[in-house]
Design brief:
The protein has helices at 6-26, 30-35, 53-63; strands spanning 37-45, 48-51, 66-75, 78-86, 91-101, 104-112. The chain is α+β, with helices and mostly antiparallel strands. It starts with 5 loop residues before the first helix and ends in a 6-residue tail after the last strand.
């Protein structure tokens, strides 16, 4: 029988936090999504930045993006997702890098080719 290491447990928990965040956004359950974020979370995207969980969630309430996760990778406190983001008019293949601290998303960056949006 394999022993579960502290690192495996941490990685599992981090993946669960990010999955709960994405699933809540998809269901437009913004209160649950907010619970996965550190209060002082930072977001960097191709089209802008947000500082603070409440600011980020307020924007998501307006934009209502939907995420179709294709692949997830976990390495310690980092979770990386490859996903299609449905932004309303367009669906864009993107990469998201989520950094966790104390079981909350502390910062994340989303990268994609913005040309279809411009």
């Amino acid at each position: 029988m394999m022993k579960t290491t502290e690192e495996q447990l941490t990685e599992h928990n981090n993946k669960v936090v990010v999955n709960d965040f994405i699933n809540a956004l998809n269901k437009e359950d913004f209160d649950t999504a907010r619970q996965q974020l550190a209060d002082d979370v930072t977001f960097k995207g191709v089209m802008g930045e947000r500082n603070g969980a409440d600011v980020y969630i307020e924007d998501m309430r307006k934009m209502k993006f939907k995420y179709d996760v294709k692949k997830s990778f976990v390495n310690g406190q980092d979770v990386c997702l490859w996903y299609d983001i449905n932004m309303g008019e367009k669906t864009i293949f993107s990469a998201g890098w989520y950094k966790l601290e104390a079981d909350k998303i502390k910062s994340f960056e989303v990268l994609f080719d913005p040309r279809p949006l411009l």
